[in-house]
Amino acid sequence: MNENDRLCLLIVDEVEDNRKEFKKIFPDDYEILEAVNEQTADKLINENNFDSVIADLKFIAHLKDNKKISDVPLVAIVDPNDENAGEMAIEIGAFEIVTKPFNQTIVAYRVQNVIKHFEDLRKIRAIKDGKISELHKYIEIDPLTGLMNRETFYKRASNLMQENIEIKYYVIYFDISCFKAINDLFQIETGNLILKTAANYFNKSIKNGLCSRIEADHFVICVPQANFDIEKLIIGLDRAVRSLNITHNVLFYAGIYPVSNPALPVDQMCDRANMALRKIKGNYMNRYAYYDAGMRELMLQDHMIVRDMEAALNENQFAIFLQPVYNIVKNSIESAEALVRWFHPANGMISPGKFIPVFERNGFIVKVDRFVWEEVCKFINNQREETGDVLPISVNVSRLNFYNLDLLEFLLGLLEKYDLEPWMLKLEITESAYMDNSHQLMSIIRVFREEGFPVLMDDFGSGYSSLNMLKNLPVDVLKVDMAFVRELEESERAYMILKFIMNLAHNLGMDVVVEGVETQKQLDYLVNLGADKIQGYFFSRPLPVNDFKKLLEKSKEK
Questions:
Q1: Nearest residue to 387 via CA among 556, 179, 138, 198
Q2: Is the model's pLDDT at 78 over the cut of 80?
Q3: How confident is the model at residue 220 (pLDDT cuts 50, 70, 90)?
Q4: pTM of the model
């Protein structure tokens, strides 16, 4: 603690709004210093004594290496939509995590707790030789639940399995459904009570095994396979938590990894158990799943994608495909959407459904997006030179781009480089980006439109749509999710909802593009609804650039 008895925090984040929110959370009792990059953070660390450092996940690994704060708790700011972000933060050196958007009570509670915990550790280190055994015990135990912590579990589980090699073990990864909602709806003490109750149940129920609270609401156990009953364990957990009389349905989910090689690092065993867990989390019918060879194939596939992604970008293995948007009233192509494809030298074309989710989790999607934007600008410029015409192209702007301060500068730089105007490059965002940080997104969209960029909301109706969103979001075009289109032929409700959305959008001054049209019958329905802009396989699949040019020529001839 500093000499003036005020706690001193360092906030390291490129996003100014995030830094401002933290200053609101700790207004009086703390001295708050800010840094926007690693260089500024290092300078402030060398000049000051901090009680805690709160930093965006991207800065944690760098800060962890600074010896000046080796005894200071790092708190990572993570994206709640990235399932692996919390684990990654802990693995690279964070002691605690906070998620966006920030809940002031939760953030204050967690930061205060880690500061107190580290202060206790410093006091404990001062205890002389007679208290060393107590010190070891304190360091190995999770202070909230009394279970062993992550590193202790890894070490002891490895020893247990290798010393009893004739015994087959399970490593089981547990997670609690909607735990963030519990912390938001109730007091923090309620969430802590659930964690303590679960820990107490594990301690009483697990025989000849080990239990750990590995982070947040995640528990891991290592237990002999013989006579182990996962259903009985989950039923017991449910009963223990129900006894707390919490007016919220708290469910535990489990991923089970049958250990075949005791020499495998325990953290990898936990990863595989967690992979099985992710397969069924949120499914009320299935509360547990076993890791299998198929999951291993997916894991290897993800590893290959991460391993080769940088080389793929440097070696031009990515290419843009273009899918036309038809105006069925004018019977012409009025724009197109750019989509990315990966042509791997050994594995052929990799489906976007395989690599895009991986890139969104690890942040590489930002680089790929920028590649696509530039390729599209090249195409528009070349078409203008070859034909004298300009066809507007829409590009996807993944939500991670909104955390980059130079986003608008980069886009305007592309327009200047290829002598284009903003209306030629349409920007597509998704509903999920709105849910991440609605205020920030609305602010950015307004800036885009002020600069002249048309803004489209993609996949509207895919999960988070609301009238409130339509009221607040200043977008030019709604792209209606294909799920509505697929149900048109069977569902009168889908027809009525789509008609309502189209009328409402038009009344609000928005255009509507209907995606996913695949049949003549679907098209007829949409014509009756008054739809005029259509995108889908009925007209054309996404095409390589040269094939798309030929399609444009045929369209002009007609």
A1: 556
A2: yes
A3: very high
A4: 0.58
